[in-house]
Design a protein that fits this description.
Elements: H1 2-8, E1 10-15, H2 22-27, E2 35-37, E3 41-42, E4 57-58, H3 61-69, E5 73-79, E6 82-87, H4 88-96, E7 100-104, H5 107-116, E8 121-126, H6 130-140, H7 145-159, E9 167-170, H8 174-189, H9 196-207
Parallel strand pairs: 1-7, 1-8, 2-7, 3-4, 8-9
Antiparallel strand pairs: 3-6, 5-6
């Protein structure tokens, strides 16, 4: 199953510290261009404006553990005091249809997925500077000062994992970041190991003397 899914679609993982703009960038990767955004389960509190089943699947910790224990998650991690995880079924369905499935997950979850699916593409998203990152966290107004400090310290630990990623995208603007991600995906689709069907067609032509 793993090999088939990797040939049919691309698994694209976007990570980065809180405040790097992951959510906004991912929402600008359009389904009309072959992208399918995965929806994560989380036990964190629903923020104003977020919609259950669209932004996240919100649940309590007992519900999350039940899905996890039934092997219903591609990856899972605890970030702060909350669980996050990616449901397997949606990812499988989208990749069977040849879509580029986008997972917006933290570093721990991304490396879990990479271990299971080595062909997954890992992109690390960062603002131009750490000062920008701090400023963005403060502008959100969704965390108190202590939580901002905690997330800012955590960002340094996350950046230390950057060498394990395939690409770094600097989010100096949403438009630029989205365009760079599109270029990465276009480049990945041209790699020979993702073109087995085309290569088989070439072999058939050679055997037929064409």
């Amino acid at each position: 199953m793993q090999d088939r899914l990797l040939q049919d679609g691309i698994l694209l993982i976007i990570s980065g510290p809180s405040g790097s703009g992951k959510g906004t960038v991912c929402k600008n990767l359009q389904p009309t261009e072959g992208f399918a955004l995965s929806i994560s389960m989380t036990t964190r509190t629903q923020r104003p404006g977020e919609v259950h089943g669209i932004d996240y699947i919100f649940c309590d910790k007992d519900q999350f553990r039940a899905v996890r224990d039934a092997d219903g998650l591609l990856e899972h991690a605890m970030y702060g005091n909350n669980y996050y995880g990616t449901p397997v079924s949606y990812v499988n369905d989208q990749m069977r249809n040849g879509h580029t499935v986008v997972l917006e997950i933290n570093v721990v979850g991304a490396l879990q997925v990479k271990e299971k699916y080595p062909e997954a593409i890992l992109i690390f998203l960062m603002p131009p500077t750490f000062s920008d990152l701090r400023h963005r966290l403060e502008l959100r107004g969704t965390e108190d000062e202590a939580e901002i400090d905690r997330r800012f310290r955590r960002a340094w630990d996350e950046v230390a994992e950057l060498p394990k990623y395939d690409y770094l995208v600097i989010n100096d603007s949403v438009e630029n970041a989205v365009n760079e991600i599109k270029l990465i995906v276009a480049s990945e689709k041209l790699k020979p190991h993702r073109s087995n069907e085309k290569i088989s067609h070439f072999h058939d032509n050679i055997e037929n003397g064409e």
